[in-house]
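Thread: FYVE-type domain-containing protein, structure

OP (GT): Posting the sequence first so everyone is looking at the same thing. Length is 563 residues per the record. Can we get the structure tokens written out before standup tomorrow? I want them in the notebook alongside the other entries.
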Amino acid sequence: MTTFDDMTATCKVIQVVDAATKTSIRYVQAKPVFPTSARDFLVVTSEKRLNDGTIAIASRSITHESTPEDKHFVRAHTHVSGYIIRPLGEDECEVTLIVHMDLGGMLPAVVINILAVDSPVKLLKRFRELYNTRKSSRSIRPAVSPSPPSLSPVSRSAGEPSLPFMSGSKEYIQHGAEGVRILLDKASATCTDTTWNEVKSSEGITVYRGVVEGSDWNAVMAKGVINCPAGFLAEILQDIAEMTTFDEMTASCRVVELVDLPTKTSVRYAQAKPVFPTLARDFVVITSEKRLEDGTIAIASRSIEHPTVPEAKGFVRAHTHISGYLVKPLADTQCEVTLIVHMDLGGMLPAVVINILAVDSPLKLLKRFRTLYENRVYKSISSSSSGHDEEEPIDYHAAVKPHQRLGPQVLKDVHVAPKSDYDHKTKDSHCYLCDSVPIFIHRHNCRICGHIVCGNCSTHRIHTNSWKTMRTCDKCVLELQQNENQAKAATSPTSEQKSDITVQAVTKRTPKTQSMLAWGVISSGALLSSAVWTNESIIITLAFFVLLPILIGYFLQWEEVSP
């Protein structure tokens, strides 16, 4: 959806309702159009195939307890929206797009009615640009009944279309289950065909290189703790729309065939980005999931041949022996992730070179998980996947004390992230705190943690010694305020200590003589001004290095006299 619709920022499935009618509940965020706020949609989508081969796909608004209205979006109401796709031939179809929605907000409907004419024209032209030149094997599936579950995937003809459908192939289900078994075996301490050695460690993430018996290509394993729920991260890892977000080396990924819903088994085709001077790689894998008794979620992928996805020109077909994740819950919002990869990239590049270079990629990937998914509002976790009720998200903006000024002293023991660790400012970047898609002029990087935040979630500044201010997200500001308040509370006398405090006489100061006062004003002011002189502007110099020292010099010449 984000590919063919330029106005869609994100789209995710909240709940799969019925596989037969492809009914699901979806949450969509649209990109904002200046100066209006962005819209979001919560719809139920369903599909029906008519007797003449026409395919009807319809969406309409619905409410769902897991996705309340977001303060950063205007919740639009979709009366109906969908497509009627009528086949005209093997490689041709007629598309009818119908949309009736209420966008809400303050913008008059008469304005939207005038502007809304161009969008569907552009969308259908976009379909032509993207899909007119595709091979017939990727065209829309004719209205035929799906293959029976007992049909072997090998015996399927190469001319069959490749859009996703629920095949229920027992052979594919067994192949996916075998992938999970191999993944668990690789991660176990009793693995006999792989010898693991630690090669790198950074920020709590450890990388191991595995020498696999009978293979020139090494396996790689990385372990690290991610501060997000295990169920949430597992959903992300299974979402093909998110794959190009968290894995910067993935160019595209699509589902070729849905096999089994309970085990989330599917055949997928992925294309990796090329690394100069080598050709790009592509992969055809079967992915399956298994939940263990201790709550660990195993997601495994391994290569498979599929008749609808032959080797493509311009790509080297890589072979994935095993690739996957073990997501083990440690707490409600914390999990341990184990990434294991063993693949043969093929081509002319020697395996020994890849074995050396492959260590950094899993380390970067787990750090990317932390950047993208730690401390997010976990709205996408369904009760079925997590097994627990969702926690109320923290409103950091409301929790921050607006009148507590933060100076350079709060940065004493704080690590300020270098710009190299900042999140990339891509068009579809989400705010680290509220998960909104900021307008380009309101997207910033927090100077403490480096995450992307919107203007509403970065309203505070920290004043440094060099008269500069640091833009900081409200989460970091709240933590700094709490730390400072705790430090003040620790140094202040407690109620028990106050009983031991004795009252002492207060002294006051009076000038000795008028001549000494005048001398003190001139001499102390001049000395202090020259001692702290810096190359600042005239206004700052006069205010801080002339007037202020003179006042200090004035008070320094007062004589202490007991009352």
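GT: Both are above now. Quick notes for whoever picks this up: Residues 538-556 form the longest helix (19 residues). Residues 218 and 476 are 41 Å apart (CA to CA).
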